[in-house]
Amino acid sequence: MTIAFVLFMALETARRIDMATAERTKDEIADAVADLGAAMGKKAEEYSLWNDAVDHLVVGYDPVWANANVGPYAERLWGLDRSYAWNGRDGLIYASKDGALRDDLDKATSEAADLRPVLAAARAAGKPVNGIVHIAQIPFVFGARVIEYENGHDPLPPNPDRPVQVFMTRLDSELAKLASSRRIADLRVADAGGPGPADIVSLPLDSIAGQRFGVLTWTPEQPGRTLVRETAPYAGGFALALLALLFLFQRVLQRLKRQEPLRLSEARLAQAQRVAKLAYTVHLPEDLLEVSANFRELVGLEPVGLEPVGLKPISLGGGAEPLTVGQLLDRVVPEQRPDVQDAYRRAWAENARFDIEYRVARPDGDHLDLQEVGEPFHDADGLVLGLITAIQDVTARRRAEETIRHQANYDALTGLPNRPLFYDRLRHALRRAARDRTCMALLFIDLNRFKWVNDTLGHQTGDVLLREAAHRMAACVRGSETIARIGGDEFTVILSQVGDRAEAETVARRLLESLGEPFHIAGQTLHISASIGVTFAPEQGTDPELLVKNADVAMYQAKRQGTANWTFYDPAMDADALDHLRMENQLHEAVAKGQLALFLQPVVEVGSGLLAGAQAEVRWNHPDRGLLPPTDFLHLAEANGLILQIGTWLLDAGCRQLAGWHDRGAAGLRLTVPVSTLQLKHSGFGDQVTGCLARHGASPDRLILELPEAAMLAPSAEMTRTMQSLRMLGIAFSVGGFGTGYASLGHLRRLPVEFLKIDQGILLDMIRNPPNQQAVRAIVALARSMDLTVIAEGVETGEQQILAAEVRCGFAQGAFLGRPIPAEAFDPAFDPVAAAPAGERGESLCPVGDGEG
After folding, report:
1. From CA 609, how far away is CA 745, in angstroms rounded?
2. Which of 202, 444, 494, 788 could disulfide-link 215, Cβ–Cβ 3.0 to 4.6 Å?
3. First-to-last C-alpha distance (Å) of the chain
4. DSSP-based three-state secondary structure for 390
5. Distance CA 531, CA 563 (A)
6. 441, 481 in Cβ contact below 8 A?
7. Contact 804, 812 (CB under 8 A)
8. Helix (H, G, I), strand (E, B) or coil at 852
9. How far apart (Å, rounded) are the C-alpha atoms in residues 266 and 275?
10. Alpha-helical segments (H) within 386-482
11. How far apart are CA 30 and CA 82, in angstroms?
12. What is the 8-class DSSP label of residue 58?
């Protein structure tokens, strides 16, 4: 039965091989015929879409040119049989055969009836066509195309339109070439209706007219049948060999079936060990070890002797001793080796179970954390024969625990201890100071201008700045001390042992000097500073929260004293801190209760001494402290966001003032209203400005919005678009306090700014250092070349007024020209010359030079 089945399968396989071969040959022949037609079409394209062919065949027939370039030439070059060219009225232009123009034009013309389907197909397609056509019962493969000019040439006139050129080759000659190249037997064209032998394969053939004129037949190869025929004489011997092979296969299969459960069990155990990164060992007397197959890879021992199969002693090769416990202990890191050795000893001696974790060093330098659990095994009398242990790689778990512990205790941005770890170390430092009866110091550090960096240059730049600042500060303290980040731009330093206040003062100075160096970030040079508050324990408290509060209060006191400052905590500062908090809360109510007031300071044209406008300022009518200048409360508004409300109030009051001037006949005066960077970045700022102007009927070209210098450094795209849209309405922009920060005139090119205010400090510096006047003159000249009008602010003396004129400032403002006064008391007819102090009138407001402003 088996032999019969094998013979049947052999015959069936041979039949399928023959069928597959026949199908493959049929596909190859079909592709070859299609490729032949496509090649003829390409030849027609090459010789018909040609300017010269139109000129020498259609426009005017040149037989010499035709013989050398088209039909006859193509026949000679490509081995074609014949070619034709017909004009648009089916008149024969030329006919050629076997590489020469034909003389029997009458016979060639009579062949047109057979070629009419070809001409019609070429004219209808407008591109090369190909196929099979009969001429006098002889099948030809043709390629045809309309003769026309190439792209870009004028078209043919209507009369000779649609001429066609046809190239042909005999089908039977091409089939002979195909049969020879592909080794296909009896490849020929047979009648379509005639029956064929069973072993003949056929492929139907259709003419260009869509009629089936015959079939392509051939005798296919039969490699399967040939193989069966040639191997038949050996069938008997093959059958006997097959019987013997089947018998042997059955015996082997039975043995494998008996071993398969054991093999599967071992494979599952090995896979489970790999997944769990688990190995096991057996400790034998004389410190010998039997280990599982994956033990060497796990621990990093690579003996070259016996291959581990299941559980066996591992030889180190070449007659060396088997693996020992000592070799395993050599891998354990030295500080944990005694603990591991002691666990093994006690398990043997006390018949006890053990569970330990330790770290091993691998040969590649990496370290693994392993957990080993083991217990003794005994003989029938209860005598300990050895230890069986399971070892698991817990490195990933340990690292995950360390990562979680680090993330919980360290700042992700700077890598410094965070608030929880800081308080833990502060409590530890306080206990140590109490135990050793020593003094410790706590420094509270706040970075100045960091909020400005975030608002102006973006949070990404702010993050880089924090990392750089943290790195600098960490380098200023000993490694045994703690520096932590407990908030956005707030840091603390714990000095665990200080002999006196001078030591803390030294560290504070070192921190300020380090942070005072310029930072180079993202193509910008940034300058920041810090304010530091210092408190001591146990002198000023032993409670962590109290010490942090004390240092924080001292830090704010240092900040009020100026940038880059530090101060020691004093209990009297608590009252100042409470007052500061109370004032901040009262500021929230100032807008709602109408406690803000508009003050105006004159702005004078330097050349003429005439009043040009005013600078708007806000004052706070505090219920208890009276009238407060902006320097006493605007920094609070900047810190808590109230600057948006105060800025909105000031803008509305300024537009109302402009409308009042217009009604009083002073429509030519301009009013400068300061705006904060936060206002400029607000999405609705543009609508807010236009709304205020429309509400009060004020003219946009009389309003000047003054930007802080910091706004120029890195303006956002939204802020720039808002300024440009307001500038198109006629609103002007100025930059105040130029020269106090780190902006340059180049930054002004980014924004539509018209006025530039030079800070008062520059005028004072020119008076103290006359050589610096040339530098200021150059700045003013450069500003004027950029179509900027320069305003000198803070003019307090006649000397400063004259100096502003000498360096050709266009306008000036300051106490000398008029102090800020309530808006209702401001006189549009104000005379700055009459208002100047008696001893300084006269030339102080007179034009200097040509008086250009």
Report:
1. 27
2. 202
3. 119
4. strand
5. 6
6. no
7. yes
8. coil
9. 14
10. 395-409, 419-436, 450-457, 459-474
11. 24
12. I
Cα–Cα distance between 844 and 521 in angstroms, integer? 45
**Rounded to 5 degrees, what are φ and ψ at 307?**
-80, 130
Here the tokens at position 263 are 């093999």
Residue 479, class by beta-carbon neighbours within 10 Å (0-12 exposed, 13-18 middle, 19+ buried)? exposed
Tokens for 183, please give them. 């080794």
Cβ count near 240 (within 10 Å): 10
Whole-structure pTM over 0.85, yes or no? no
Instruction: Check residue 681 and give its pLDDT.
Output: 82
**816-833: per-residue pLDDT in tens?**
989 999 999 998 887 766
Pairing relationship of beta strands 129-135 and 367-378 according to DSSP bridges: unpaired
Contacts of 378 (CB under 8 A, 6+ apart): 384, 385
- For 362-382, b/e burial (b = at least 16 CB within 10 A) is eeeeeebbbbbebebeeeeee
Angle formed by the axes of helices 235-276 and 2-48, nearest 10°: 80
490 φ, ψ to 5°? Answer: -110, 130
User: What's at 819, amino acid-wise?
Assistant: R
Q: Which helix H or strand E contains 46, and what residues bound it?
A: helix 2-48
Amino acid at 197: P
Residues 61, 165: Cα–Cα separation, whole Å: 13
60 token code pair: 């005017």
**Could you give the CA distance from residue 819 to residue 61 in angstroms, rounded to a whole number?**
103
Q: Are 738 and 710 in contact (CB under 8 A)?
A: no
**Tens digit of each residue's pLDDT (9 = 90 or more) over 764-797:** 877 778 777 787 788 888 888 888 899 998 898 8
Quick one: DSSP state of residue 561? Answer: T
Tell me the three-class secondary structure of 572-633, residue by residue.
Answer: CHHHHHHHHHHHHHHHHHHCCCCCEEEEEEEEEECCCCCEEEEEEEEEEEECCCEEECHHHC
